[in-house]
Amino acid sequence: MISTPRIMTREKIINTGLLCLLCCAAIAAYFLDQGYYVNLISRIVVFAIAGIGLNLALGFGGMVSLGHAAFFGIGGYIAGISSQHFLDNTDVLLGLSGTNQMLTIWLITIIVNAVLALLIGLISLRTTGIYFIMITLAFAQMIYYFAISWPSYGGEDGLLISERNQLFTIATDNELFFFLICFSLLIFFLWISSRIIHSRFGAALEVARMNHVRLATVGINPFPIKLVAFIFSAVITALAGALFADLNRFVSPDMLSWQMSGEIIIFILLGGLGRLLGPVIGATIFVLLETFIGGYTEHWKLFLGLFLLATVLFAKGGLMQIIAGKKQHE
Amino acid sequence: MNIALFFEQLLNGLQLGMTLFLMSAGLTLVFGVMGLINLAHGSLYMIGAFCCAWITKLSGSFLLGLLAGFGGAAIAGVIIEVIVIRKLYKRDHLDQVLATFALILIISEGTSWIFGSSPLYLSIPSWLSGSVPLPEGGSYPIYRIVIIAIGLMIAYGLYLLITKTRLGMRIRAGESDREMIAALGVDIRTIYTLVFALGAALAGLAGALVSTLYSVEVGMGEPVLILALVVIVIGGIGSVKGALIASILVGLVDTLGRVFLPSLLALFISNDHVATLSASLASVLVYILMAVILAIKPQGLFSIHD
Description:
By secondary structure, chain A is an all-alpha fold. Chain A is 72% helix and 3% strand. Chain A has 13 helices and four strands. Chain B contains twelve helices and two strands. In chain B, helix 1 packs antiparallel against helix 8 (188-210) and helix 9 (221-235) crosses helix 10 (240-268).
């Protein structure tokens, strides 16, 4: 690959700077006794992880999934359900007891969502374009309505998590510790996605997006490439969902709604589609708008809508393109 | 199972189907002719319902309200098309999804800013209230029968418009080859605006018609939008005939499934878990239907681009 070093360097500097800024802001807020703002930054980080997940499918693989809320929400519900059974000391099903250990919950989240994404992907990836958008939306809606009408875990009202799940014996109720868990996972997933993108697999994925016929002519079948990327994407978004549930100590069907799917796309788009740190920038803009305009008026989504519309119509590459220049190969 | 109940639910399904048809006709036309996926179609439905509720309360006449719902949504459609939608025809689906998602946010929040967040209620006008007898001793509200009749009339009108008129000919020509029709000197931009406004007006009419059945509130458009999306995907995107058949199918499956699936399953197995499961299953039946149909025919039942 021929790279344009100047721009890559600028993007890397911005990426590093942004991550440092987030981390320092959280630590500073904590020592200034502003727990609220630490949680706010954790919120940014969790949304960013969800976006990083979707970005693999959408930004790099060109799969416009309007159903990633399904994975986000199921991740959340796994955290919530497990914690409820652990606290009640009851079985989840068939003699499996609940747990409050994050690592176990994450493992279950990975397995469940990988299987689910495999099933959804096998059916959805047979279609393209508008049909793909609609069928991913339909699967998410199925799960959404299922969650609403299933009364055991709160139904429409959602499920409270009375104690945050634990990572070993770390006091996750401490805002800073919880932030650091989220932040470490953010760095980990950034590293993972960067490794995926720069691997042979990632190159195949990008070609599958740009010209899948060409990929097939060189002897690589695009379908399994896209399917694997879709599964990775779903799993990362689901882990963000599990963190989100613990962060808010609450899960509700809203996490599964199609508006949520739209918002995860927004995180990516505001920052820059197919950019490694695009979702981090996008999630930051989103949470800042939500907090600061939301503080003045409950109609803050009007401004989010205007901002989003302007980005789509006039600034296609998102904020990253404005500050770091165009992406390679575009 | 009781015959009267069955007839009543059959008609309810048909009424839901007709409402969905009014929504999906515009959605599928806009996709077929302009290649645009418009998520903000549900907002036009909401605009229709709000215009109807507002004008009916001001004037006291429900007929004027219906007209306002139809016209108001058409005007809103023209404004949206000229300002935003027109720029999206050449963009990819992701841009269209995002821009129209942004429109939903703007229109919903704008509406709740103007009308407040508490819902509006309209009652059925006295000359349309009352009911007709059904066989086996049931009865059915006239108003819902009127909705079914209006839906069927609109379906027939659309059929005439598309197959028998010059405008319809141009719309069909635009579907199959937009460069060619533009080269023949037809003003394709105006046709696009007209098609969008027509779709908007039908969505507005749907919203106005149901404003007496459900509460008129912000966010009422999205559930209907998603069902309408299911309809056009099942019917084959771009096909009005497919939209009509799929609307009725989805309306019937959703309504009858909710009422009869739990009791049907209870015939075989009866315990509490199965009862909750079947209630949950009934609410996702249409999506299962869609997944099955797409798994067999990935382009929908009546795709125009076969």
